[in-house]
């Protein structure tokens, strides 16, 4: 639906550089305040005294309570860096961005930025923060236009402790946006502005498409009165107590479900039946308790041919749980050696006969993959992330050859599972999951009958391109199959040869 404030609305909007898309930084693109991150880092490194830190906190509170102007607050921050070189401060900002800030960027806003760029709009990061806070985020998002405050420097490139005038804040920020629009042929009546702060209310009136984002106070009140569409995101605002409780409850369900699985295995005298009960029940229960809704295109391809190598793109710790929930039963997985001692992942892996690969020991890695191949020959499917590690990005990393070599060795097809929006559920290293909807596309099995060691890199790249194309243009109905399906021998024809292997998928007599 093309609701105001949605990516769909932007994709259907008028195209061209005369349409501006102005984004605020703190609280809008990034959860929290980047200035606080820099201040905390200086305190931790003893580059500022406790008194100076308290002074900064007090200045911030005075500004929030209306007892001082923004100029006083930003000036105090600049004076703390007096005598520092701009290069050193830029290096600090880049380090903090990688360590602290990149994980706070709202994935929903990242999608909106990309949607505006795809329409050819002039995208601007307009913020009252300093360039050292703003520019790393702008570079990461590919935003070339930045309106922000800047340090004054002397002839030696050292910070004087002052900020260049006029200060970009409130009316000053509105003037900066108007001047930029005039100089670049932007029609503000057709433009968009995303911001959260009360000081940006005046700027909202200037554009034809005001988009208050995570607003509070005056901004929220004016938005409600004027009927402006309000965008609210919680995926990077820190886990709410409710999300933490739901996650704990979901993970805790592992214990009774494992007990039930043990009972099923003993009653049937079939270990695999018990494992299947656990994997299918735990995946469903965990996602239901957390409130994760899977919107799947191509669900029928999950059972079109078994066994198979199911591959998925990896953003966070929710991805393997989502993929496992879909594959459901009669599968095992592959993970890195470090996860073997994880109380959750390690336990799950042991139950499922997963292989934990030691990447630093090629010989042990080969032995681990051989174990997986043997299980596949007995009828178990393999679930694996071909990127090898989590990537906090909407792109797709390089695919490793391991999953595809397993498919070739055993003679089973590859089934691509493309996951979108999982970064909304959790950040890269977060162990707490937020409720939300995740889009999943499952493509038909891809036969590896005509694959060879010579054409393997080409075949892998074709499948990776399938992921890139799908994420760029998401299927909202029937899957559009790329050329690799028309060229390859249909995997279903090979199923007749592989079917007998399923008979040994559930060996009896192993409770």
TrEMBL record:
Keyword Metal-binding attributed: yes
Identification of the protein by name: Transferase
Low complexity biased stretches: 502-511
Region described as Disordered: spans on this chain: 489-511
Pfam families named among the record's database cross-references: Acyltransferase, HAD
Molecular function GO terms recorded: 1-acylglycerol-3-phosphate O-acyltransferase activity; hydrolase activity; metal ion binding
Phospholipid/glycerol acyltransferase domain ranges (all copies): 308-422
Assigned keywords, A-Z: Acyltransferase, Hydrolase, Magnesium, Metal-binding, Transferase
Gene Ontology terms: biological process: phosphatidic acid biosynthetic process
Ranges of Basic residues composition bias in the record: 489-501
Similarity remark: Belongs to the HAD-like hydrolase superfamily. SerB family.
Superkingdom, taxonomy of origin: Bacteria
The UniProt record lists the keyword Lyase: no
Listed NCBIfam families: HAD-SF-IB (TIGR01488), HAD-SF-IB-hyp1 (TIGR01490)
